[in-house]
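Renewal narrative, Specific Aim 1. Our central claim is that a sequence can be written position by position from structural information alone. The example that follows is taken directly from our test logs and has not been curated for this report. It begins with the structure tokens describing the chain, in the order in which they were read.
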């Protein structure tokens, strides 16, 4: 009887550890098992909080954005992320806006020439939104972590516009992005 109990405990622990290892080692398979009707368009995996465990970020063809955190839990983050026809596909960027810190950015494009950008920070096992901007012309993340938003600024005379630039920098002390320049 005692041997059977130990065997049952061993098998249970083995299965639990196997499932955890499966979840963390193959996020694509884990996602497909949980959401068999969703098609993955893009997946990126990286350790963004320096805990030596990876997180995975998934965009689906239906425009949904998911996180698989380091514990293997799938978290729905946002939907309606898809580019209009003839534009580049949505993209996931992992960048460093400050020393020892990484954020995740999702961008997509839509007519006539707009770029939408969402920036998230990993907090408490999920992604928290930190910035949401739209550039009429372009949104770009610089190597130093600054975010540039190029937008059309209407001029006083009809049907004319000028180029304006807003720059966003991460303020780690306050946990938010601060914009400077010509903000829309």
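The sequence written for that structure reads:
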């Amino acid at each position: 009887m005692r041997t059977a109990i130990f065997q049952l405990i061993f098998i249970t622990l083995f299965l639990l550890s196997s499932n955890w290892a499966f979840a963390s080692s193959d996020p694509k398979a884990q996602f497909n098992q949980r959401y068999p009707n969703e098609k993955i368009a893009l997946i990126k995996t990286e350790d963004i909080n320096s805990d030596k465990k990876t997180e995975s970020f998934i965009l689906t063809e239906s425009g949904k954005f998911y996180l698989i955190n380091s514990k293997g839990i799938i978290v729905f983050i946002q939907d309606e992320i898809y580019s209009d026809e003839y534009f580049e596909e949505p993209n996931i960027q992992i960048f460093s806006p400050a020393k020892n810190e990484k954020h995740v950015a999702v961008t997509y494009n839509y007519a006539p020439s707009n770029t939408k950008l969402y920036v998230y920070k990993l907090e408490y096992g999920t992604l928290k939104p930190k910035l949401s901007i739209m550039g009429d012309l372009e949104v770009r993340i610089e190597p130093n972590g600054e975010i540039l938003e190029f937008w059309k600024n209407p001029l006083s005379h009809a049907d004319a516009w000028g180029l304006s630039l807003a720059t966003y920098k991460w303020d780690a002390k306050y946990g938010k992005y601060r914009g400077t320049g010509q903000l829309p």
